[in-house]
Design the sequence.
């Protein structure tokens, strides 16, 4: 059975998981990144439907008991940047109210600002989060640039610093003042070199134990945390970074983590992909997340 046979289009009463696409990337351009991530949702879906089956050999997990719906893409036709973010806030709030777990297909990381605002609003501010990213994305500006999003949600009080972790940042990809902002706000900093030294399992477990508390969780993955050789189709490529195995494993661990209710795969850019390599990796990460989610329901 293919995964496409399990995913139902449109609203599905009692669904365990909702998938939604956010085809927007204006904030990437503001940061000097490569435009094209707005094309990602449809391309990730294509790879999700094309190759993946519901059974996982390694974990002996079958996804067929999951009820999954695909709500399609948010429609931003004719809207300016401010209106786009208000629509994301409004529509995502309704989705979080209705579905226990949400997977976002991005799209520029800039949209996560309003997705996280919606998540925080529906969960009454009781949220913790992990940003798996080559960059910190905490620049102090008033625009909706993709490099500002996590700084904005912390400064505006939607997410407490002590409940937030930056994982996977690359060397020479962050300003010193941005790292100092994270430290000042008691955010957890777990650079790529630390994960490389300690391993993904220990790093993820330690991170969750330090930031989660009793809160619900989100994990936002910027695909640029993966080395460009494996993920050429991204907005801001880097020669260093995770291997496919590592980021797939982290996605599985995220799904297995109790209280993980939002999983985003962002900044996939089909314009620069090679043979759908990056879109296929993003799809595989989503399947790994679903596999972890099913296992978490089975573990006593």
Sequence:
């Amino acid at each position: 059975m293919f995964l496409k046979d399990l995913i139902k289009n449109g609203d599905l009463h009692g669904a365990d998981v909702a998938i939604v696409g956010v085809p927007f990337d204006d904030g990437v351009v503001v940061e000097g990144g490569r435009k094209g991530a707005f094309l990602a949702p449809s391309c990730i879906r294509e790879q999700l439907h094309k190759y993946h089956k519901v059974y996982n050999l390694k974990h002996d997990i079958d996804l067929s008991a999951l009820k999954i719906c695909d709500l399609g893409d948010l429609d931003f036709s004719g809207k300016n940047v401010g209106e786009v973010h208000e629509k994301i806030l409004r529509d995502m709030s309704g989705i979080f109210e209705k579905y226990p777990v949400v997977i976002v297909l991005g799209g520029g990381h800039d949209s996560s600002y309003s997705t996280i605002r919606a998540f925080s609003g529906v969960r009454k501010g009781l949220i913790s989060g992990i940003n798996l990213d080559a960059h910190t994305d905490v620049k102090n500006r008033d625009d909706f640039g993709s490099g500002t999003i996590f700084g904005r949600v912390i400064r505006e009080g939607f997410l407490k610093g002590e409940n937030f972790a930056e994982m996977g940042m690359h060397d020479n990809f962050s300003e010193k003042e941005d790292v100092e902002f994270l430290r000042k706000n008691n955010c957890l900093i777990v650079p790529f070199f630390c994960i490389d030294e300690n391993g993904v399992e220990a790093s993820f477990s330690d991170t969750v134990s330090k930031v989660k508390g009793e809160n619900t969780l989100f994990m936002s993955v910027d695909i640029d945390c993966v080395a460009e050789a494996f993920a050429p189709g991204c907005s801001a490529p880097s020669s260093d970074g995770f291997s496919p195995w590592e980021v797939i494993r982290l996605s599985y661990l995220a799904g297995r983590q109790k209280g993980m209710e939002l999983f985003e795969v962002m900044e996939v850019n089909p314009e620069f992909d090679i043979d759908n390599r990056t879109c296929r990796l993003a799809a595989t990460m989503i399947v790994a997340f679903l596999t972890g989610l099913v296992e978490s329901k089975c573990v006593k």
